[in-house]
Write a structure and sequence with these properties.
Layout (H helix, E strand, L loop, with lengths): L1 H27 L10 H34 L6 H7 L2 H4 L2 H12 L4 H8 L11 H25 L3 H10 L3 H29 L3 H6 L8 H10 L4 H25 L21 H30 L3 H5 L2 H35 L7 H16 L5 H12 L9 H39 L3 H29 L3 H6 L7 H10 L3 H22 L1 H11 L1
Helix pairs in contact: 1-15, 1-16, 1-17, 2-7, 2-9, 2-13, 5-7, 5-13, 7-9, 9-12, 9-18, 11-12, 13-22, 15-16, 15-18, 15-19, 15-21, 17-18, 18-19, 19-22, 21-22
Length: 534
């Protein structure tokens, strides 16, 4: 049944994406007359590769020491709030995050104002490649940090006790204990960040500074929105998939299987990091990450507090948008987590040694590839395709909620997969043989074995998916109407009508709602911490 359910999820996934692409291709019935590989396309391709590569390197290199510092300091005051803070960039609409960065790094921002006070005239420009890199690190470094931290926290307690008994120094701990875990997570995290940066649209449009800093995603948008040339848009999407697909194959070739050790389930206690130098270094990395993240968010918060919040809180339009956003976020998150868990379990089942046929390996590979490649299919392509498919059936607005939930669920699937897959693999390695020998299967295994052990990653994945859906604007921009207005769409509308104070207040509401979802997703951490203190 697990394999069948996984096949159904994969088939539904492929059908949903394939029908949208076929609908776009059939709109014009032929290839585009424009040359695909003209000078402009080559230029945006080079810039896409450059900014995505640099953004990935900066995000990952920043995330590794921050994750190590957080893993070594599990008890410092405010740690749980820092982890919750790291989820906020995912839930913020990209435009809101960009505006917060402009408040800090822009021409009249805090940083340039301070540098001018020191006598340096306009030393930093947020626009162009520099601004794009800063924005991508702001949005993606927290994601990579949480992925790495989750892996480091799964290291069995026995490893640390053995290392302490052997007197292993810090560099040996990193080489023999931490690095094998990080090395297994690095290809997936780096590939995910690279795809997010390669498919970036709003950030590049806002901070790019002109045609010289445009990406393939912008070219796809122009082909659909201004030229309405679907075949060219699909060809550009294929170029994007091929370009990043080669990188994913390389990263998969470099990836290593996680080394799962047996554990007695003891509470993890690390004995390293007691020296003054280690404490100073960890504190510096954690403080730097905190300041880098909190400054733009505080800028958004201060701008929001200047709005008439009471008026916005009494606005019926805000009430409807809030309920709509919450309902869509919850539905899409549940769908994404359920689909990911079923597909991961199905892939593990068919890839077991006793079933490792070429067909089984192909099925498992298709599941892994689908959860990554969905990021390369722009939401505007999916939305436009389904708009064309549903238009002959009458008012498209009737189908808008279901389509938006489906698109958001698919867009969150790569994040959910990367959170659940390592945790489920570790759980299976530790419990598979014992549960099989005891004959525990089906609902009983799910209730008594799987759910209690996987509660923490499931809640984290759910909160990530809800935050991503909450901040989505792409799908709603195509299907939004008076009957379906979300908070990001209402915020965009108020900004478009130059009601900047209302827009700032709505951005504050959106950030607080994302924070609430994050708290719910990390509530298990609080309960476990209180249990350890007791």
């Amino acid at each position: 049944m697990t394999v069948v359910a996984g096949a159904v999820c994969l088939g539904t996934f492929v059908l949903f994406v394939g029908l949208a692409i076929v609908a776009l291709l059939s709109q014009t019935g032929g290839a585009s007359d424009d040359a695909l590989f003209d000078a402009y396309i080559w230029r945006v391709t080079r810039f896409t590769l450059l900014q995505a590569t640099l953004s990935t390197l900066l995000s990952v290199l920043f995330a590794i020491p921050v994750a190590r510092s957080l893993a070594r300091r599990p008890q410092f005051q405010g740690r749980i709030w820092l982890l919750r803070l790291m989820a906020l960039p995912l839930g913020l609409p990209v435009l809101v995050g960009a505006l917060g960065l402009i408040e800090i790094w822009g021409r009249q921002g805090f940083l340039n104002s301070g540098l001018r006070w020191l006598g340096l005239e306009q030393p930093v420009s947020i626009y162009g490649l520099f601004g794009i890199l800063i924005a991508h690190v702001f949005f993606n470094m927290p994601l990579a940090t949480r992925l790495f931290l989750a892996g480091l926290e799964r290291i069995p307690a026995e490893y640390w006790r053995s290392a302490a008994n052997l007197g292993m120094p810090s560099h040996a701990l990193f080489r023999f204990i931490e690095w094998p875990v990080l090395r297994g997570l690095l290809p997936g995290a780096a590939g995910l960040v690279f795809m997010l940066c390669a498919t970036s649209f709003t950030l590049v449009l806002t901070l790019g500074g002109g045609p010289a800093a445009s990406t393939i995603e912008v070219a796809i948008y122009q082909a659909l929105r201004f030229d309405f040339d679907p075949p060219r848009a699909i060809a550009l999407s294929a170029l994007q998939i091929a370009m990043t697909g080669l990188l994913l194959l390389l990263l998969r070739h470099l990836a290593t299987e996680p080394e799962e050790g047996m554990t007695g389930g003891r509470t993890v206690r690390r004995f390293d990091g007691a020296s003054s130098i280690a404490r100073l270094g960890d504190g510096a990395w954690i403080t730097l990450a905190f300041l880098f993240l909190v400054a733009p968010l505080l800028a958004v918060a201060f701008s929001g507090l200047e709005a008439d919040l009471l008026k916005l809180a009494r606005d019926p339009a805000v009430h409807r948008a809030l309920l709509t956003s919450a309902a869509i976020a919850l539905a899409s998150a549940l769908a994404s987590v359920t689909m990911a868990a079923v597909m991961i379990r199905a892939a593990a089942t068919v890839a077991a040694p006793r079933r490792a046929t070429s067909l089984a390996r192909g099925f498992a590979g298709a599941i892994a590839a689908s959860t990554s490649l969905i990021l390369l299919v722009p939401p505007v392509v999916l939305g436009a395709g389904w708009f064309l498919l549903l238009r002959p059936l009458g008012d498209v607005a009737r189908f808008a909620p279901a389509i938006v939930v489906a698109i958001n669920a698919l867009m969150a699937l790569p994040f959910v997969h990367r959170i659940l897959a390592p945790a489920m693999a570790t759980h299976a390695a530790r419990t598979e043989r014992l549960t099989a020998s005891l004959g525990i299967r089906g609902v009983h295994r799910l209730r008594w074995i799987d759910v209690p052990a996987l509660r923490k990653p499931l809640l984290m994945a759910l909160s990530f998916a809800m935050a991503l859906s909450l901040g989505d604007l792409g799908a709603v921009a195509l299907f939004g109407s008076q009957d379906m207005v979300t908070l990001p769409w209402l915020l965009y509308s108020r900004m478009g009508s130059y009601r900047t104070a209302d827009a700032a207040g709505l951005a504050l509401f959106l950030g607080l709602l994302c924070l609430i979802f994050t708290i719910l997703g990390t509530a298990e951490n609080d309960r476990r911490r209180e249990g350890r203190k007791a």
